[in-house]
Amino acid sequence: MKKYFFTILIACLSSKVFTQTAEQIKSDTKTYLWGEGTGATLSAADQDALMQIISQLSATVEANFTLIKDEAIKNGKSNFTETSNLLMSTYSNATLTNTERIVLSDEPNARVLRYLRRSEIDRVFQQRKQKIIDFTLLADGYAQQAQIADALKYYYWAYLLLRSHPYGAEIEVPHQGTASKLLATYLPMRIDELMSGLNYQVTDIAEEPEYKQVTLYITYNGKPVANLDYSYWDGRDWSQPVSAKDGVGYLEFFGQGVKLRTDTRIRVEYAFEYEARIDRELESVMQKLTPLTFRNSHANIALVKSEKPTITPNPVNSAVTTRMLSPVENPKPYEDAVRKVIAAISSDQSGKVQSLFTPEGFDIYTKLLAYGKARILGEQTFTPIRFGNEVICRGPKMSFAFANNSRKFVEDVVFHFNEQGKISSIAFGLSAEAIHSITQNPKWTETEKLTIINFLEHYKTAYALKRLDYISSIFSDDALIIVGNVVKVNRNTDNPFGQSKIVKYNRYSKQQYIKNLQQAFASSEFINIQFEDSDLRKAGTNSNRFGIQIKQNYFSSNYADQGYLFLLIDFTAQDSPVIHVRTWQPEKNPDGSIYGLEDF
């Protein structure tokens, strides 16, 4: 009885102290910002309380939004309180991780007190500051590699987030060997510099009664762009965005009796609103801020073929064909076969070359032509090389457009011939950057490097052409498959202080993974995968197993992401590689690493 009485007494005393603490917090406005929310559930009450804190934060830091304030004054607006409130709402739960909570009453009439020490206000904005710096450093690296689309994207995204930061005018980023850069001036300057460094040359013009195609060679400071997204004025409207690759882009003009214009305008893409969806915080900021325009994003192009275009050799072909591989004694039959296929595609008579293919090769060829509207881009040279029992001919660049989507891609097409001289397979080639990251490694033989290139090209092509049969065949039955998804998590009683974006890792069996892929393929008009820098390691001195770490950019008609892929592959049977481990993660680990051989 005494024990029971003592328990009740302690509970009452605790309740009294608890209530006094809440009242003390609410009365001490010099120390705390607080919000008291109500709702049918604790989650609803919690949200209500947090929004009250955000409103108070907005009033507290409004004067510090100097970048937005200067823009408002420049546009003749003296009151930017509404904009300040909108920007503060983009912080929401994700950054209020240092608030504390007291449950004043439980469901169904929940009442919650949230509070934040004023001394902790600066920490609320630290996460976004770090993202701004990270995006800037990423863009710097991409710019050095002439990956102009990626560089512009991350510079612009960093600038958007900078404008949404109350102390954005003060944020700097360190630069090795030089003084720190003030991002408020550095970011717009770099965006304009990248755009002004672009040069466009017309290398080929193909004219038909109802179709004109202009092939472009695009460089940045004299170097072929690794990638660039742009649209162009077709005489009536701006085109769908085109993704140029390794210096090659194109323009298309349609219509009965269409005449080629003497010139046109190009508009370089830098906002990448579609891809911003993968980051809820960034997407929210983009929706609430007025878009920025840059004077150098538009350029005029004379639609006249250059007499002597200054084109550097195809970096992909050069990286592969100049290696010490067995030459093809008589390359003419392979070159002639590829030219016949090119002619058949160009004349829309693709079926007439079926005799050049094996049954499986023709099936892949048919799928490739169904991958959007396929067209050959200009006149190009190619050199067959021998690899094992195959002959590989890195063929033309082709454009692919999609009727129900706003993307157009440029892809290298690689032809594989069997011992009988038949085309047994076709693949989309890797980018010059991805090729370079593989071939520059001095540890591997040229045969090993080409084996990796060959595998990755077939791998990315299988996803693009939705070849479930091939994908299933290259995974071992007991493969370890781990997929990291970025998921949004609402605050709740079990996770009151959790981030709103976390990475959830799912382990799948081969059967589950293939089933999920089948659903993804069915719901997407197209899938396009691009690889960037990679790292290769051999699992043991005399092993035929390799670990491949590579950055992957994934695009589809309804989804886009980028992350890091790790594959553990057994190449004992060169013609039948087997994947034993596949992992994907959206970001590197805190120490800068990604999953690799040492983890398995």
Task: Summarize the structure in words.
With 600 residues, this protein is an alpha+beta fold. It folds into 4 domains: 2-124, no CATH class; 125-309, no CATH class; 313-429, Nuclear Transport Factor 2, Chain: A; 433-600, Nuclear Transport Factor 2, Chain: A (Roll), CATH 3.10.450.50. Helix content is 35%, strand content 30%. Strands 9, 10, 12, 13, 14, 15, 16, 17 and 18 form a 9-stranded mixed beta sheet that branches. Strands 20-19-24-23-22-21 form a 6-stranded mixed beta sheet. A hairpin with a 7-residue loop joins strand 23 (560-570) and strand 24. The model is unreliable at 1-19 and 486-502 (pLDDT under 50).
Q: Give the overall pLDDT as a whole number.
A: 82
Main sheet: strands, sense, barrel: 9 strands, mixed
Any idea what the radius of gyration is? 29 Å
β-sheet strand percentage = 25-35%
Number of helices: 17
Q: Quick one: overall form?
A: globular
Cα-to-Cα separation, first versus last residue: 59 Å
Give the helix/strand class: alpha+beta
Q: Catalogue the unreliable spans.
A: 1-19, 486-502
Helicity level, as a percent range?
25-40%
**How many strand elements?**
24
What's the number of domains? Answer: 4
